[in-house]
Amino acid sequence: MRWRIISQITAKEVLSTLRDRRAIVSNLLLPLVLLPVIMLGLPLLLGSLFNREQASETPLAVENLAELPPELGEQLALANVEPYAQDDPEAAVRNEEADVGLTVPAGMVQRLSEGEQVEVVLYSKQGNLEAEVAVSKVRRAVDAFRQELVSQRLRRAGLDPSLLEPVSVQAVDASTVAERSSGQLSWIIPFFIAIWTLVGGQMTAIDATAGEKERGTLESLLVAPVKRSEVVVGKFLATMLFGLSAAVMAILGYVAGGTILRGLVTSRLGGDGAEIVELLGGSLQVTPSSVILLLLSTLLLAATLAALLLGVTMFARSFKEAQSYVAPLSFLLILPVMALQFADLLELGVGVYLVPVVNVLLLMDEIVTGGARAASVALTWGSLIVVIVVLLALALRNFSRERVIFRT
Predict the structure, then answer these.
(1) Are 352 and 366 in contact (CB under 8 A)?
(2) How far apart are CA 148 and CA 314, in angstroms?
(3) Among 214, 383, 235, which residue's Cα sits nearest to residue 309?
(4) 31 CB-near residues (< 8 Å, 6+ apart)
(5) All residues at 6 or more sequence positions from 379 whose CB lies less than 8 Å from its CB, including other chains
(6) Closest among 349, 385, 354, 380 to 367, alpha carbons compared
(7) How many CB atoms lie within 10 A of CB 66?
(8) d(CA 290, CA 296)
């Protein structure tokens, strides 16, 4: 193969794609901006909302408010909960007149003083985040009142309250710093990188194959003194370049989201809000080695998708038909990423690192969470190189078949 010819074909495809300004916006600007926004925007939003709800006063609709023990009222006040009388707290919650309601049994103070057991009923709508925060405040107040009541009864009986807790449990988080800081949204990073790798390369692949068919320029290229292998490699490099550029911008967004914004914004949140941000991944750790591993993995993913796109879009007779072929390919990325969320529950063996696309998504997730091992890196990269060679051979075969080239 003549690399001078290949570079000319690659340059032609790159210039053809760059003439469309939408390609620059979609390939370079969007992945750079969107990933930091998603990575930190959602955790920070939830953290801010959680802080606001904790600090604000929560109305509590109470049936039989007069029966509410004063000690429980004090605990509710400490939790920023303001009880008010309501004949039907369940209906008030159902009709969204209140986020949380409470029914206090008749004679509660008298029954507790006589040592009886009483039951209060808590009403809320499950799945409502604001209501869940309000319920947690009420539960904390009721638990504190109950513990104090039990301690008082035990002391009156001459018993030590610690008798009820003969065994205590101290939970220690043994995860690494990277695992702890990656949070519940770490799976977004490999998904975002993979999606933009596909989006970035598909426009070039379609234009270089079905687009040339539609414009009638592919025949002119093929009758020129150029080998089919040179045409395929030139178009492959151009497609890979755009896919890789979009992915690199997404990685830069990951770096920005994990360093600059984390230092500027997350530190301003305190208390429970900061814990929510860290739980969701707002304190993501970014290291040079993780960025390098992500770049190399992305290079192989971009090459895999570029070879696949060329082979698929070559069958299309028009630009629109090629788009219909490419759209389902996104499910090759979405489904594995959805499965990654349950990776801890799945018994994944070493063989999963031999499955194309799934292996690189899993590896990227491990890189982000600091759990990548040399064996998984070697298996993933080695299997992807084999897949790239096979897909390029299939693409070359399609470019050599007149039935495919002149399919109109």
Answers:
(1) no
(2) 74
(3) 235
(4) 192, 196, 200, 246, 247, 249, 250, 253
(5) 350, 353, 354, 359
(6) 380
(7) 10
(8) 10
- Residue 396 has a CB neighbour count (10 Å cut-off) of 20
Structure tokens at 343: 């990776």
pLDDT of amino acid 126:
80
pLDDT digit string, tens, across residues 91-108: 998 888 888 999 999 888
Per residue, the 3-state secondary structure of the chain, as one string, reads CCHHHHHHHHHHHHHHHHCCHHHHHHHHHHHHHHHHHHHHHHHHHHHHHHHHHHHCCEEEEEECHHHCCHHHHHHHHHCCEEEEECCCHHHHHHCCCCCEEEECCCCHHHHHHCCCCCCCEEEECCCCHHHHHHHHHHHHHHHHHHHHHHHHHHHHCCCCHHHHCCCCCCCCCCCCHHHHHHCCCCCHHHHHHHHHHHHHHHHHHHHHHHHHHHHCCHHHHHHCCCCHHHHHHHHHHHHHHHHHHHHHHHHHHHHHHHCHHHHHHHHHCCHHHHHHHHHHCCCCCCCHHHHHHHHHHHHHHHHHHHHHHHHHHCCCCCHHHHHHHHHHHHHHHHHHHHHHCCCCCCCCCHHHHHCCCHHHHHHHHHHHCCCCCHHHHHHHHHHHHHHHHHHHHHHHHHHCCHHHHCCC
The pair of three-digit structure tokens given for residue 123, joined into one six-digit string: 């009403």
Query: Cα separations (Å) of 189 from 42, 88, 247, 358?
Result: 14, 47, 11, 14
Q: Which two tokens stand for residue 14?
A: 């790159």
Residue tagged 């926004």 (tokens) = 37
> What does the alpha-carbon distance between residue 367 and residue 288 come to, in Å, rounded to a whole number?
11
Residue with tokens 């799976």: 187
The sign of the dihedral angle between the CA atoms of 221, 222, 223, 228 is positive
**Pairing between strand 100-103 and 81-85?**
unpaired
- 233-283 pLDDT, tens digit per residue, is 999 999 999 888 888 888 887 777 666 656 665 555 555 555 655 555 555
